[in-house]
Design brief:
By secondary structure, this protein is of the alpha/beta class. It has 24 helices and 23 strands. The strands form 7 sheets. The chain has a 10-stranded mixed beta sheet, sandwiched between helices. It has a 3-stranded parallel beta sheet with strand order 21-22-23. Strands 5-6 form a two-stranded antiparallel sheet. β5 (170-172) and β6 (177-179) form a beta hairpin. α9 (268-279) packs antiparallel against α21 and α17 (469-478) crosses α19 (504-520). Bound molecules: iron/sulfur cluster.
């Protein structure tokens, strides 16, 4: 049965501006008491604590939320990267009149601070001069504690990617534990997840009208903790969410209860089941309210926010950002800003559903597009106002380069759909794959006076691109600077199926078109493929096959990455539980994951089979696999034999190369 698509009140025109509108906008969002005084403000209405340096640009969450609330008449201050050892740093701007917002920044703080091998990173792209250690581990939690100490009576709201992906009980790779929802640990009043603009605006106006925060329980994209569910709720705990009746939108009292924190902590199969269920409840048009007991408390996660309209997104991106780091940083360079200062974000969301990625869990599957006019105006602003611009737009893209204006053919079908991906296992017949709006956008951007080149650096989803040879032609003729990065991620279908990625056949189709159009354009251009080592499903044998494929195609990769289990991702559920949440768990499908550091490093080494430093461990692995036939000097060999003078490879006993124990795969 088709579901009626939902709409929401307009983000800008449905609210009466707050009284402080006459004091705004601030030329620079204030970060100190002196800056408040210069603005003539007695206090801020909202203060955002952020793990990132403050860059007044729409790609940085604190600035975007600050400028959006300013448009509604609220005075917003930001405390970027405070000293978390001392609550006085959180008192810099005094208490806000309405609420404190806490965000770890644009990245989860543990991903920011540690590598996939759990080693500390030596730098931080979101800090002046890339300095490490400007934020704590689990920044949202630490900042929330300091805020509570500083001003215990002020409403506390957590948000941003860290809170968003840790809204349920979740596996935490860094502590190897299933942790509670971040709401329980922080004891915040509310958690806002996903694209939080609607919830932030609604919440702030209601707090300004003196509604107590503990009574605000109906915001989409919010989560809270209570003692028990209201009596009128219909709570379902059945095994099959697809047979669960109407969506919350059409039945406001329906709720789906996930296994409790205690259950998912002790039972890996239930963890996988909970992961499957919550991922089936991400379409805002049909998602139901989700409940998860934590001891004697109940976590309530309301359905996701209604996607922003094009007009709303345009207005958000055209707020009066300075498009520069805050003046407090002087000449210091902030690497993440340097990377995006000449780029333009054209859309949000992704319907690819790659299981290792968290974009869908955060931004949703429905693409939210800016208008061409708004994007052109931003390019002109960069040209006219951003220091150092030399005529090249470094990227015109988004989470995926080529999903601009792509959508389900029918809003009604889209509203009732529960598929995890519009592209996997095959492109859905209901998906409109017409790339003409994107081609038109590229052409218009190149035609702007003073723009010499417009590059596409966002990842191209090549299985989608091959449906539009005209798009590939436009891309390779005008928007590739010699190399184009694409992400097959693996060669073997057993792993690709765990990633929800297409088979290599679409890669070959894309490469053939890429080569043909590059030649026609008289350009020598190359594809740079990216692969992930140690993804769930990938064992050493599969990695050897992938390494042979790389050698056969003469790829010598410089940079390789190992799977990093981000909170909430479906692949993380596979990694932790050993089960496959892509399938119903009444007949569980088990998944092998390389967890030992030695095996993860071996898988990475196989991606760099050409590096002599890796040859000893690769040889040893090949011998253990019974594939010594791949050691030799021929084309068919993966690595050469050791030189006579080369000492035999020895591992320290703790670093022995571990090959997968086949029996252990059958959990
Ligand atoms: S295109 Fe297919 S998978 Fe995507 S929303 Fe529409 S029906 Fe669902």
């Amino acid at each position: 049965m088709a579901t009626t698509p939902l709409t929401a009140p307009d983000l800008f025109t449905s609210y009466r501006p707050y009284w402080a509108k006459r004091l705004l906008p601030a030329p620079v969002l204030p970060t100190t008491r002196e800056e408040l005084d210069q603005l003539g403000w007695e206090a801020c209405d909202v203060i955002i604590i952020s793990g990132d340096a403050l860059v007044d640009h729409p790609s940085f969450g604190a600035a975007l939320i600050g400028r959006l609330l300013e448009a509604h008449g609220f005075r917003v201050g930001v405390i970027p990267q405070p000293n978390w050892q001392d609550s006085s740093a959180f008192q810099t701007l005094g208490p806000p009149t309405l609420w404190f917002g806490i965000t770890a920044g644009n990245m989860d703080s543990m991903v920011n601070r540690y590598t996939a091998d759990r080693l500390p990173r030596s730098d931080d792209a979101y800090t002046p001069n890339g300095a490490a250690n400007a934020r704590p581990d689990r920044a949202t939690l630490v900042y929330a504690q300091r805020c509570r100490e500083a001003f215990p009576e002020i409403p506390l709201v957590i948000g941003g990617i860290e809170a968003s992906l840790r809204r349920f009980a979740h596996f935490d790779y860094w502590s190897e534990k299933v942790r509670r929802s971040l709401l329980l640990d922080t004891r915040a009043d509310l958690l806002l997840y996903g694209n939080a603009e609607r919830a932030v605006v609604e919440l702030t106006h209601r707090l300004a009208r003196k509604e107590p925060i503990h009574t605000i329980r109906d915001l989409r994209g919010s989560a809270y903790v209570c003692k028990k569910a209201p009596n009128e709720w219909q709570i379902h705990t059945v095994n099959d969410p697809d047979s669960m009746g109407p969506a919350a939108a059409h039945h406001p009292h329906i709720a789906l209860q996930l296994p409790s924190y205690e259950q998912v902590r002790s039972d890996r199969r239930l963890y996988a089941q909970a992961s499957r269920w919550l991922h089936l409840e991400t379409n805002p048009h049909n998602a139901r309210r989700l409940l998860q007991p934590h001891q004697n408390r109940l976590l309530v996660v309301n359905p996701p926010p209604i996607p922003l309209t094009t007009d709303e997104l345009d207005r958000i991106y055209e707020l009066p950002y300075t498009r520069r780091p805050h003046p407090r940083y002087g000449e210091a360079r902030i690497p993440a800003y340097e990377m995006i200062r000449f780029s333009v974000n054209i859309m949000r969301g992704c319907f690819g559903g790659c299981t290792f990625c968290s974009i869908t869990e955060h931004e949703g599957r429905i693409i939210q597009n800016r208008s061409q006019g708004s994007i052109m105006r931003e390019i002109e602003t960069i040209r006219d106002e951003v220091p150092g611009f030399t005529g090249t737009i470094s990227d015109i893209g988004g989470p995926t380069a080529n999903m601009y204006r792509l959508h389900c053919r029918s809003p009604q079908i889209e509203a009732s759909c529960r598929r995890l991906s519009c592209l996997y296992p095959d492109i859905c017949p209901n998906l409109n794959t017409d790339h003409s709006a994107l081609i038109e956008l590229y052409r218009a951007s190149r035609a702007i006076d003073g723009i010499k080149r417009v590059m596409v650096a966002s990842g191209v989803r090549y299985d989608l691109a091959v449906t539009s040879p005209a798009y590939i032609k436009e891309l390779v003729t005008y928007h590739v600077g010699g190399y184009l990065k694409i992400a097959p991620e693996h060669s073997e279908s057993a792993t690709l199926s765990k990633m929800m990625k297409p088979s290599l056949s679409s890669y070959y189709r894309f490469k053939s078109l890429f080569d043909r159009f590059s030649k026609e354009a008289g350009k020598e251009q190359y594809l740079i493929p990216y692969f992930i080592a140690a993804h769930p499903g990938s064992d050493t044998e599969q990695m050897v096959t992938l390494a042979l494929w790389l050698k056969q195609h003469r790829f010598r990769l410089d940079q390789v990455q190992a799977f990093l289990p981000a909170p909430l991702a479906l692949a993380t559920a596979m990694y932790h539980s050993g089960y496959n949440p892509l399938k119903k768990l009444d007949h569980p499908d088990t998944v092998y994951s390389a967890k030992k550091l030695t095996e993860r490093r071996l898988q990475k080494a196989l991606l760099r089979y050409h590096d002599p430093k890796n040859w000893p461990i690769i040889r040893q692995a090949l011998q253990q696999l019974g594939r010594a036939d791949l050691i030799g000097h021929g084309k068919q060999h993966l690595v050469p034999p050791p030189k006579k003078t080369e000492p035999p490879h020895r591992h320290h006993s703790r670093q022995r190369t571990i090959l997968p124990n086949r029996r252990s795969r059958r959990r």
